[in-house]
Automatic annotation (TrEMBL):
Enzymatic class: oxidoreductase
Organism of this sequence: Caenorhabditis latens
Any one cellular-component term (Gene Ontology): mitochondrion
Gene Ontology molecular function, alphabetical: iron ion binding; trimethyllysine dioxygenase activity
Protein name as catalogued: Trimethyllysine dioxygenase, mitochondrial
Gamma-butyrobetaine hydroxylase-like N-terminal domain ranges (all copies): 25-106
Keyword annotations from UniProtKB, A to Z: Carnitine biosynthesis, Dioxygenase, Iron, Metal-binding, Oxidoreductase
Amino acid sequence: MCVRKEMLAFITRVSSWNLKNIRSKNDALEVIYFEAGKQSKLIMPLVWLRDHCPSTKHYHFKTNQRKSNCTDLTSLAKIKNKDDVRVNREDSSMVIDWIDGHRSFYEIGDIIGKGKKKKEVAIEKVIDLWDAKTLKEVPRISKSKLSLPEFSVKLFKYGVVIIDDVEGTAEATEKLCKSLVPVHDTFFGQFWVFSNSASEDEPAYEDTAYGNEEIGPHTDGTYFNQTPGIQVFHCLTPAKTGGDTVVVDSFHCAKLLKNEFPEDFETLCNTKISHHYLEGDVPGSSIHSLSLEKPVIETDSFGNITQIRFNPYDRAPFACLSSSESSASDTIKFYEAYEKFAKICHDPENALTISLKPGSVIFIDNFRVLHSRTAFQGYRKMCGCYLSRDNFMAKARPFLRQITSTYYEW
């Protein structure tokens, strides 16, 4: 039986318990217990308890997977009478005899640890929101001293990190990236080498990234339903002039928006817009990627920001026109809110500027940090890729537990 000992240590005893009628007779259990010397109460639906039965009949411990297919949970989560539930106050254990004859054994501390609703914790308690004054420069790690724990913590906390002393080649960059996190593949390919003057061995797409004009702060891949998680750039040949990289903490910008214009913040959380990538002018021959109805600011159930999708350039036509005046009002409210957020994101006080050079590879959390490029003159050659954020978090979580212990499992 899997027991969370750290949770049990805080539970001295179960004070009392009784059956409750929530949606039908005797379909929940109310438990009064003491935790860290403080009395608490939880109501546990019987269907939830049946779903979390820790027996080998219902749970495969080697794979950490349930065995139930959930087609009969509610019908099996029933008891005949109160005597079918027995709680031992001394060791805080519980036995339930179900209507189908199955017997479940529970540790109260274990099931509380699994099921108790998480308390609201502000995201800024586990990551560092920043602007030009508070961060001053992008965190850096020398490749000779590179470790996955340090890389993970820096990228998680700040959303951006530079690895220095990398050989100034595409091959060395690709090898470095794949040693850290699996690649997130798209129709651009797994790894790119590109410039503003494409040769036969370089891809050329009808996108401003392949030109030399200024590009404002944005997140990449808003036109993908599965947004690329981590953006990687390595400047192999710097431009004669210009071509600096600018990064902005969009979570910090969104917090500024929320503090000063809370209604506009809510508008960007609740209004869903679409983004697209179109290439070519011959029907049927173009690359066409489309992401429908995603909010600019995505939040969790606590109101913490989890992702920003901000790309003024790749927005699809906003299908919002109707005969309704309220719809027109909502549309105007959206543009007002989007403009306010854009101004905050473009404020130089919220930006860090880096002149990328050969040997320095920048990693950017594309869910959080906006990147932009200043205009440049002359030839400029870059390489890079997208990395999987899910795979990064899977590898990073063991190193992040200490700083995320007060927050939900990112």
